Each structure stands twice: as structure tokens, then as C-alpha cells.
Amino acid sequence: MRILLTNDDGIDAPGINVLAEELINNGHQVLIVAPDRQQSATSHSITLHEPLRIFERGKDKYATTGTPTDCVTLASQKLIKNPVDLVISGINSGQNMGEDVLYSGTVAAALEGMFLGMRSIAISITTFHNQKFKTAARYLCKMIEDGIVEKIGKDEILNINVPSVEFDEIKGIKITELDHRHYDDFVAEQTDPRGGKIYWIGGDKPFWTYKENSDAKAISENFISITPVSPQFTKFDSIDKYKNWLK
Question: How far is CA 64 from CA 8, 10, 35, 97, in A?
């Protein structure tokens, strides 16, 4: 397959490079277009008020000064010479489950690929420590070999989360839905050297509901979670209610 590979952790992050190596070793053609720096939690932002630059970093490997969404847009318009079969965003450092998909640059890059007419996958590993990127890369290559890409429909992406364990410790794969999470102490307050207040957004470990058939529950049991995600935000069952109000 011809694959466009991107991420939000930056072009030098281990996840994207481990995955690129595994994909190439499995016979795929890989074009890497990724941010030149950390771009986590940029969601679907695009750069409108400053110019973007593209830097060649090796054979079929480019860094950009933009967001993950910018990377996919630039790749599609300026770098892709032949149509690609798949966009992969990842392997992200840290989970993208539940509401995290709304903030995630990783997921946004996959969604941008979908908007541009390409089948797309976002893949993340669910820890920031002792990361087993090789496990996620091997499983993703196996999924591709088994035909999962052909199953991806219009107006959807696959959001994949992989436990950070050894390959043979994975118990299987589950098709899941997004869970719900909350953080304690989501805003940390500190004092700068001049006595002024400063704030850091970002909680400690998230607390999940672990509802049945959710991504978080699957991960907690050492299963890989695959969640079909669609950007359809219209709440159709409320339309009649507001039409009646309008009358």
C-alpha cells in the first residue's frame, strides 16, 4: 500500500519512526509528513496567519512548521505524487480515548485525511512510560494484512488504542465505543519568580467510567480497542423538539 504517515508528537518522536520502519519492512510505500515539533492537543487547528514551511528530512520524509492537520493538507496538495491508499496518524504517545478524540491532533490528522477522501486510521499507545511502540506497529501491520483498510467506510476513521505491553501479552482486539473520563486537579496553580499567578491546564491520571464495550474497558483488560469515529455532530433526535419550539 501507499501510506501517508503523520502524527502530532513531531517527526522525531519514536512512535512514528518505529511504525514507519515496520510498515516499510512489510512492503508498504511510506511518505512521512509530520510537524517539526510537539503539537499534541492542537485538535483540528489549521495555520492561517503565518506562512508554512516544508523541510526535507530524508527520503520520502518531510517536516513542516504546521499542525497535524496542516501536514495532511500540505501532503495532499504539494507532496503526494500518486494517490495514497491510507493515512495513518501515530503512533501517538498516550491514549486517545473518550473525549480525548476532540482535543487530539493525532485523531484530527486522520479526520483531515478522511475529509480529503482518503481512508484513515489514528493509532495511539496508552502510556507515557515504558512504551512498547513495536507491539502497536506489529499489530497494525497485521490488521492491514488482514484487510481492515478495505472495511473503512465513507465519513469514518478508525481510532485504535493499544496497551503498552509485549506483543504476546495482548489478549485480542475489541470493537468499542468511546468511554467517558474526568480529571482531578485539571488546572494547576503556581507562582512565577516575580510573584504572579500562572496556571497549567492538564490533569493527572484520568478517571474512566469503564462502561461495557468501551475503549477504556478494553484497554484495562489488555485488549486492543478499535473505535469507528465519525465527525457527525448533529443530534438528530432533538431536531423535531426545536422545530416545535420554533413554531
Answer: 11, 9, 5, 26
pLDDT tens digit sequence for 114-171: 999 999 999 999 988 889 999 999 999 999 999 999 999 999 999 999 999 999 999 9
Query: How far apart (Å, rounded) are the C-alpha atoms in residues 170 and 55?
Result: 38
- Domains annotated for the chain, with CATH where assigned, are 2-179+209-246 (3.40.1210.10)
What is the DSSP track for 29-83?
Answer: EEEEEEESS--TT-TT----SS---EEEEETTEEEESS-HHHHHHHIIIII-SS-
Cell of 198: 500562572
Contacts of residue 233, defined as CB under 8 A and 6 or more positions apart, other chains included, come to none
Q: If we measure between CA atoms, which residue out of 116, 88, 120 comes closest to residue 16?
A: 88
Question: Who's near 91: CB < 8 A, 6+ residues apart?
Answer: 7, 15, 16, 18, 19, 123, 124, 125, 133, 136, 137, 140, 162
DSSP string, 163-192: -SS-GGG--EEEE-B---EE-SS-EEEEE-
Phi and psi at 231, nearest 5°, equal -85, 25
At 201-239, the pLDDT tens digits run 876 677 888 999 999 999 999 999 999 999 888 889 999
CA 247 from centroid of its chain's CA atoms: 43
Cβ neighbours of residue 118 under 8 Å, at least 6 residues apart? 4, 76, 84, 86, 87
Structure letter (DSSP) for residue 11: T
